[in-house]
């Protein structure tokens, strides 16, 4: 089973790229973030024509998450993060597909630092930690997939320039500590389980020639419960999709479970 996460950065603007990626890579489950469209305007017909069932949690112009399943309809388990500090934001969706529990997650960006947006980011991550603990305790195959908006370390493996990102919410000690607190429950960072060292980026900004310079960083993560981690066969990033015409600023990131 191939499970992917992809911050599409506007599903209507990127629909040709999304359909292209689905056809060429055929993930069994695709978790999408930053739909930037309402529930009513989600392109369900196009997704179904591509062979995928879908559930979605939209928001006009901002945020929004979805879960697609090839040849199946995801069974929704949770819409919105329990006790979300601001439930007006569509940032969390959880479903079951073929016995696997999958969450599509779009964490708050948190900029500028300090400020209320950064406070919201940390509060949201604390609620995610609490909910993740319950999922972990279920002893089921669970994948928490999404755009976490956290760069795990200052290493070149994770970020092109620690200095350039030093004042960004994505690289603050508090953001990293919140991510580590989730991992400390026993979740496995799938990418680093397969590739413990070496450069792996999932995002390149549209500004300052970031893509041609390969000035990227790793913020899209798939966290696996022990049952899922025991089945881990491979993980990677579909980097070349970032270089296509009118691409998202994120590249699809994926795992394969036996």
From TrEMBL:
Major enzyme class: hydrolase
EC number: 3.1.11.2
Residue span, Endonuclease/exonuclease/phosphatase domain: 4-250
Active site: 106, 147 (proton donor/acceptor), 250 (proton acceptor)
Cross-referenced Gene3D superfamilies: Endonuclease/exonuclease/phosphatase (3.60.10.10)
Cofactor or coenzyme needed: Mg(2+); Mn(2+)
Protein name from the UniProt record: Exodeoxyribonuclease III
Gene: xthA_2
């Amino acid at each position: 089973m191939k499970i992917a996460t992809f911050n599409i950065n506007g599903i209507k603007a990127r629909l040709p790229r999304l359909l292209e990626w689905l056809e060429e890579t055929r993930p069994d489950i695709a978790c999408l973030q930053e739909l930037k469209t309402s529930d009513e305007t989600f392109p369900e017909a196009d997704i179904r024509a591509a062979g995928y069932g879908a559930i979605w949690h939209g928001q006009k112009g901002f945020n929004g998450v979805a879960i697609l399943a090839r040849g199946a309809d995801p069974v929704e388990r949770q819409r919105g993060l329990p006790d979300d500090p601001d439930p007006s934001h569509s940032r969390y969706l959880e479903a079951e597909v073929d016995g696997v529990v999958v969450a599509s997650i779009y964490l708050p960006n948190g900029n500028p630092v300090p400020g209320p947006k950064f406070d919201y980011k940390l509060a949201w991550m604390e609620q995610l930690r609490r909910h993740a603990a319950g999922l972990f305790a279920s002893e089921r195959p669970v994948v928490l997939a999404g755009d976490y908006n956290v760069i795990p370390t200052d290493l070149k493996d994770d970020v092109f320039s620690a200095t350039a990102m030093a004042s960004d919410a994505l690289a603050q000690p508090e953001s990293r500590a919140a991510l580590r607190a989730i991992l400390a429950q026993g979740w496995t960072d799938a990418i680093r389980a397969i590739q413990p060292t070496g450069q792996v980026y999932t995002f390149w900004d549209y500004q300052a020639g970031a893509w041609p310079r390969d000035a990227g960083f790793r913020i899209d993560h798939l966290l696996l419960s022990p049952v899922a981690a025991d089945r881990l066969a491979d993980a990677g990033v579909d980097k070349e999709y970032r270089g296509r015409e009118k691409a998202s600023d994120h590249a699809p990131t994926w795992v394969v479970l036996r």
